[in-house]
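User: quick one, fold this
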Amino acid sequence: MRKHVFIALCCLAASTFIFSCKKEAVKDAPVATEISDDVKAKIYAAGFGTDNVRKVAGGYLVENDIVLTDENLNVKVNSPFLRVANDEQYRTFNTVNTFGGVRNITVLVSGLSTAFITGTDEAIARYNAEGLNITFSRITSGTADITIQGFYQGPSGGFITLGSAGFPTAAGNPYNSILMNTHPQAYGTNPNVLYIASVIQHEIGHCIGFRHTDYATRSSCGQNVNEGQVTNGVGAVQIPGTPAGADPNSWMLACSNGGNRTFNANDIIALTYLY
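Assistant:
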């Protein structure tokens, strides 16, 4: 039996997987490589754990679904905000600039099946239903603010990555890429659209500046592990009005429940506060 987890978006295997995959089928997939101590030090200083860090296109994959760019790791930020080691909704130092109005963010799904397209539409509808100062619309051609593409990678070390994304830029733009795993052990041969929508909804959350709700404990993963100290870089700023106790149903929990998960009441408070 497998336990699906988000880390924030991966599946935890309760048994050992024996598998093989075609390397030529991998495109922009996380690739294991040696990470220097200097890079690990920057990742730690940015407020993220350094276990299982992998080099990927555009930066480094940490916490199994977050991409940190060189900009994230090299920008020093002095902030009055301090980390609170509880389960609360957290944002990064950078958020999306709405320029004082309502900003529409375009999303393009490239090279993925109908299930991923429908899942994207559902995730977009969930955000747009909240009446925020950011909206989303899917386009079918041209250059989008966020492009959703596939990669193909089987389980590794007991986990399989379902999706990954990064954080907003210092200029106030959303992270421009979400990668979704097309390996059969990620979503199966007949993917559940609402499950895919929940994963994309979570990854969009990272793109607009949300960290894992339980980053200080990873309790949703059955762990008691802090994802890292926060001294500079990305940051983990607690959002006012969100709870100081556990929030077991947040859309930004580090681990998935393996099914459909959308915004709870505290998530909506957090979204409304920021946008």
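User: anything notable?
Assistant: Confidence is low (pLDDT under 50) at residues 1-32, 77-87.
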